[in-house]
Amino acid sequence: MSNKSLGRGLAAFLDVDTTQQIPVNIDKPINVDKPNSDKSVVNINVDHIVRNPFQPRQVFNEENLVSLAESIKRKGVLQPILVMRLENGKYQLVAGERRLRATKMAGISEIPAIITSMNNEDQLEVAILENIQREDLNPIDEAEAYRRLIDEFRHTQEELSEILGKSRSHITNTLRLLVLPEDVKSLVKESKLTFGHARALVGSPEASQLARKVIDQSLSVRETESLMKDVKVGRTSTADLNPKKKQAPDPEVLNLANQISALICLSVRIKLKNRGGTVEVDFGNFGELDELLIKLSRSLQDGR
Predict the structure, then answer these.
(1) What DSSP character marks residue 128?
(2) DSSP string computed for 51-66
(3) What total of structural domains would you count in the chain?
(4) How far from 40 is each of 30, 49, 97, 220, 249, CA to CA, in Å?
């Protein structure tokens, strides 16, 4: 498959400079009834735009969206989004989902857009390019985007390295994150684990438990890598990664144990089971045990 477009950025698909800031007066929408053939900027009702099915980004930072929405309220949308016409009169978003979401959040009904025509591969490539070039794309969404380019469009890792400007090792290590358990991948998406932490956990059968330990103890990437080595060579037991919380003793059972302990002058524990339980008596030496037997014997004789 040809790589004629992948890696050249949004401008490669258009005859306009999409990096240029184009202030658009939202109060005076441009007529979009006529076919768009010159790649000009037009205003489109946000309710007429549907999400890009090829969007690799699944997590959108709410705080950043709020900040962008406030900026849009003050200055408008400075860079148009990219859309395609659909047969039902609506438009499919190609690039600019953050701007679209923030515009809706700002309560603005229309957004500047450039209407273009693309095949499925170009749509995916543009969406990936737009997101990969941003620093806040989480590693799992990035890995899934690489996987789609490889599986659906037959690109090799070598090709992706060359045309996306990423090292081969970065692409390989990012793709390896996809073998992590779903709960660990969710922690990465939520920015609770970094790329370095996640990479260290790849391949461990106890990745979920280790991830929780990393978070609970605020371990650095280097400390996480050291922990993985300790687990691998057996210096750290995985059984101790998530110790079970001790259940609070029943007050009535504890009271009974104390009463027995006072009678025999030894430490007593009562453990409950499904239909009964056990009574454990601690003794320091056989002399204490002999005294206990004597007391029990006398109690039996007195009971007769």
Answers:
(1) H
(2) PPTT-------HHHHH
(3) 3
(4) 10, 18, 19, 49, 73
- Known catalytic residues are 97
Length of the chain: 304
How far is the C-alpha of 237 from the C-alpha of 100, rounded, in Å? Answer: 49
Q: What is the CATH number of the domain that holds 111?
A: 3.90.1530.30
Which pLDDT band, with edges at 50, 70 and 90, does 238 fall under?
low
The secondary structure of 207-235 as a DSSP string is HHHHHHHHHHTT--HHHHHHHHHHHHHTS
User: What's the rounded Cα separation, in Å, for the pair 207 and 24?
Assistant: 49
Residue 28: count other Cβ atoms within 10 Å of its Cβ: 8
Whether 170 maps to a domain, the answer reads: no
Is residue 261 situated within a structural domain? yes
Domain residue limits at 271? 251-303
Q: Is there a single domain that holds both residue 37 and residue 111? A: yes
Q: Is residue 167 part of a domain?
A: no
Per residue in 143-165, pLDDT (tens digit) is 988 888 888 778 899 988 887 77
For 253: left if phi > 0, alpha if psi spans -120 to 50, otherwise beta; the answer is alpha
Residues 209 and 230 sit within 8 Å (Cβ to Cβ): no
Q: Are residues 64 and 15 in the same domain?
A: yes
Report how far residue 176's alpha carbon sits from residue 56's, in angstroms, rounded to the nearest whole number: 17
* Contact between 50 and 92 (Cβ < 8 Å): yes
